[in-house]
Design a protein that fits this description.
The chain has one helix and four strands; from the N terminus they run ββββα. It is α+β, with helices and mostly antiparallel strands and 79 residues long. A hairpin with a 2-residue loop joins strand 2 and strand 3. The termini are far apart.
C-alpha cells in the first residue's frame, strides 16, 4: 500500500479487492487504533476472476478521469 498513514486514519485509492463473494473494485480504510486495513467501500459488482475486476477498474478509471477533465474545463471557463 502506498499510503503514508502517519498514525491517522486513511482511505486507499480504488483497487481490486477480494472477498468470499469474489473480486470487486473498492477502497480500504486504515484504522489507526487497530493498526490495520479493512474494507471500506465497494463500487462494482463481484467478478469471478481478478482479471475481470482489473478490466472493470481500468474502465472506471477512464470514466473518472474524463469527469475530472470536464470539471476542470468547466472551472477554467468560469474564470
Amino acid at each position: 500500500m502506498d499510503i503514508d498513514t502517519d498514525n491517522r486514519d486513511a482511505i486507499s485509492n480504488h483497487q481490486v479487492l477480494q472477498s468470499n463473494a469474489g473480486y470487486y473494485v473498492g477502497t480500504l480504510y486504515f484504522d489507526s487504533e487497530m493498526n490495520g486495513w479493512f474494507p471500506n467501500s465497494r463500487v462494482s459488482d463481484y467478478f469471478k476472476t481478478k482479471t475481470e475486476a482489473e478490466i472493470h477498474l481500468d474502465y472506471l478509471q477512464k470514466i473518472w478521469d474524463r469527469q475530472r477533465q470536464y470539471h476542470d474545463e468547466w472551472v477554467n471557463r468560469r474564470k
